[in-house]
Amino acid sequence: MKDKGLLIVISGPSGAGKGTVVSRVISANEKFKFSVSVTTRAPREGEVDGVNYYFKSMSEFEHMIHNKELLEYMDVYGNFYGTNKFFVEDMLNNGYDVVLEIDTKGAFAVKKIMPEAVMIFITPESFDVLSERLVGRATDSPEQLKRRLGESVSELKLAAKYDYIVVNDVLDTCVNQVSNIICSEHHRSKRCLDIIDNFSK
Ligand code: 5GP
What we know:
With 201 residues, the protein is of the alpha/beta class. Helices cover 44% and strands 20% of the residues. It has 8 helices and 9 strands.
């Protein structure tokens, strides 16, 4: 039987650059799969259905909840977001490491269901950099911006509950650190005991 893959949960405030880090980590290793979330939020310019998110209507989303197709789901900034349960289970069972990029509430919900999940928190180096990045993105109205900043501060307070905190200052460094964490997690003794067991056969 194939070894099960690892579930990697990545969170961090808006403006931490999680999306870029995650896509770089995923593209560097064919054993990593990104779990494309489902959302009721409207696509932003340049976002592609099935790549960034599966964009759904509220009634389609409710249908997925009803059919228990979501591992977790949350209302984030007034829109619903959820993790595709079947994709995650299927990929893990086929030996892939699955990366979720989800908010802190969703992350803790996943950790409860799957305690083996590896939790990584990505943060910018300072509050000033965080605000600059959010303003620079210019996709939000001033009200949305204010709310996102407030939410970001609340999310940062939860970083201590994660297994790892990584600063996204220099992108390449951050990508390497996240990849190294995943690699190290595979080498935890509890996940490698079969290697040792082989010696006693
Ligand atoms: P955005 O609208 O900027 O793409 O995402 C807003 C927030 O929703 C981010 O913190 C992102 O990590 C989170 N998010 C994206 N997908 C999911 C998901 O499937 N579940 C949960 N709980 N949060 C998600």
